[in-house]
Amino acid sequence: MARGGPRTPTNPAPVSGPGQLSQRTDGGPGKQPLGTPTGMPYGEGGALTQLQKSAPMAASPGGATPAPAGGTGPAGPPANVTPFGASTQQPGTPVTAGAALGPGPGPEALGIPNAPSADMKALVNYLPVLEMMANMPGASSASRNLVRQLKGMA
Length: 154
Description:
Layout: H1 44-54, H2 118-123, H3 127-134, H4 141-153
């Protein structure tokens, strides 16, 4: 009988945590099935299967997981989503509305300021001092927001 080399216990598992952190050490009631994707380059599918065998995952406690709320599932898409092939709900609005090119209103319609004012540009020079003040205990959220806005400009 040869001795030496790594000895990794398989069943039971080596150690369990104390108290509430304790887990089964006998391998548990079940494992998730291996999933091997298709269409991979030669040899990678086998390598992926081998990786899954070396670190099996425990079976999920409730079986199949339900679809997330509001998503597409057996009940279909949520009611407030317009289907892809549906006709427009805003017939007088061009698709380029809000873009810098094409017909319709430009980016100014979105309410996003284009260029910072001269005062804001001047405040960028004081950013280190303003940042220190915004990080002090009791600083207002307005001062922190000003620092964020200045950092976005710099």
